[in-house]
Amino acid sequence: MPPKKRAAKAGANKLVPDQERKKYNDYYYFYRRGEPERRRNKVKLASQPLNLRLHHGVVPDETFPWRTNEGLQRYDEYYTWLAEQNDQMQIDQKESWDSNDNESEESESEDSDDEEKKEQAETEKWETARGLTKDMYEKGAGLHFCKILGAGGMGIICVFVSYDENQTPTFWTVKRDIGGYDEVAKERETTRTFLRAPHIVQVFHPYKEKHLEDTDDDEPLKKRARTERSQAEVRKESRAARAGQRVASIARKAGTAARQPPPIGPTDQVEQVPKSMVMEYVARGSLYEWLEGLGKTKAGTEPDLRIPNRVLWDMMACFMKMCLAMEYPPLIFFPNVPESDPLAEDFVWNTDDRDDGNMVPELNPGPHNGYVDKPAGSSLIHFDIDTQNVLIGDFDSESREGKHRVHPTHPHFERMTDSHDGTPMFKLIDFGLARDMSVDDACRRNLKDLWGHRRCGKPGFYLPEQFTREWEAIVESPDAQQARVAGQYSWKSNLWQLALIMHIVITFRWNPTNTIHPLRDADLIYGPPNDLPLKRQRKRSYPTYGAHLLDPQYDHVPFRLRHLVARCLCEVPDDRPSFEEIRAEIQWAWDHESAEEKEAARQWSRTHFEKPPPPVIPPWKKVEQWAKQKTILRFDQYLEKYPPK
Q: In 506-589, at which residue ranges do the beta strands (DSSP E only) sit?
């Protein structure tokens, strides 16, 4: 063998261990069905149920229903096989329990350990809630504890209530970090970027901003406008708050505090409560809970309970506007909208001296409103968009009442044709993992952070920009190697995750996202996009993770919507549709909808998006006494031990 060929062969062999190491260490290869099954991962997840292992890609390739010409026949065979395997697993599990008593003893000890951990977590959760309530009272925030909504490893979320001058209650959601973490401060500042964006959950903002007069020029401000509150006024209000606390203390000692009404809130002292964030309260909960309840009625299979097309299109419109708000935050890119203009207003602070809750509409992108002339967007990537972080808000009739109602004679009413009278507004929360991934940002220059972002988010909702095979060929920076997918984060990354949620809503299945197949442009003249190409057919092919949405089993959903979602699930970000393309499809669907279909969808939404009753408000004096207890005690246990007189 010639020396040059021998050297080339030696060099090629030298690269093989490196490549194998990357494949084994790659956390994301289970998203890519093209690789064979790995024994190492199979052993790791062998104890999990089969359907969960399937979703994580450790089931052999030959058992997965690839997209073939047989279509639904392969699906029927696959799900029959899946049911048989699940039954066999239950039989094997029962036999193993009967034959091995030691394993049962070990499982009992593990269960006892789990119980101890649960008890410890419950104690920590209530201690955090009690500390938060105590801080609210000590700082004079005017918020009173109601209940705990949820808790996790990093923090808890509670419901608090405040009162105005007429003793009308208003509910708030308060998030606090557990232990020594202080990530909520960063999340609070990020969420404030989207102040007055209707499809983003609003964080409490005590200061009244002085905005410029309304003009046609919406260039970003070079520096933040001054607030109308001076430092002297802030100090004056702080002294008044401390004086009020002293008066309350004297009244309490005199025994007259029980007859006093609860203090008015929320006050500006909310900002002084550490490691916490006050947000608007969304009563209907998360999309995950709603889908879970709707799935129990088999809404995805029974024709009379399927989600109406209008609701699906409205949901897609809300998701597009979430992307739009994250790319063009209203207060940064459109600061000149006057406060007196209640455009798309759906959330207003209840205190009379605060009127900065007016919402800025997410205008349809296009040359007519200045989006084309805008500089590059903020490139803020959420990284954690899933069904648990999408909340179901109010209908227009619930959020625009009284003086805040927008009348049809309003001069800008035509910009609100996508009102939420028939479908509630969907809102996005949890910006704890959000990162600014613009080209000149430090996150892209820091290789450690850039590679670390591959694990931002939840398994099952990772982006192609995180798990694509291109990463295996990248040595340092994906930008330096001109990667098409790896690390190419943009607003279309947010779009991909929201399209994955639309996929779940349409299919009612948590399908694996690792099936990638070509999708050709929709051409209504030459037939469906996945037909064999004709002579005159010139269609571009997109690799997408949503091609199976075009299968006949989903024909009850409009073809244009399924094709749009499939395009949003394309692997290459440049292949995903633009704002203008998405808006055009949604507008087309609204224009071709009959009045009967719209009314039917409205009635369906009113039935299936029923608003739950408000939280039970406990006696605020008992809450205050509970917060000052030195021993850790759950609030319900405290009320049982010391009932209100």
A: 517-520, 541-544
Residues 69 and 172 in one domain: no
Q: What's CA 250's distance to the chain center, in Å?
A: 46
Q: What is the pLDDT of residue 95?
A: 56
- Same domain? For 140 and 258 the reply is yes
What percentage of the chain reaches a pLDDT higher than 70? 56
Question: Which domain range does residue 159 map to?
Answer: 121-283+612-645
Residue 202 within a domain: yes
What is the chain's alpha carbon radius of gyration, rounded to the nearest angstrom? Answer: 28
- Model pLDDT for residues 567-619, shown as the tens digit of each residue: 999 989 998 999 989 999 999 999 888 889 889 999 999 888 988 888 988 88
Q: Peptide bond before 518: cis, by omega within 30 degrees of 0? A: no
At 455 the pLDDT is 82
Q: Give the pLDDT confidence score for residue 19 in this predicted structure.
A: 47
| Cα–Cα distance, 555 to 532 (Å, whole number) | 19
In the beta sheet, which residues pair with residue 554?
none
**Is residue 261 in some structural domain?**
yes
Residue 174's alpha-carbon distances to 129, 328, 350, 435, 622, in angstroms, are 10, 26, 17, 22, 19
User: What is the structure's pLDDT at 301?
Assistant: 54
Write the CB contacts of 302 (distance below 8 Å, at least 6 apart in sequence).
none
When pLDDT is averaged across residues 539-547 and rounded to a whole number, the result is 76
Cα gap 310→235, rounded to integer Å? 52
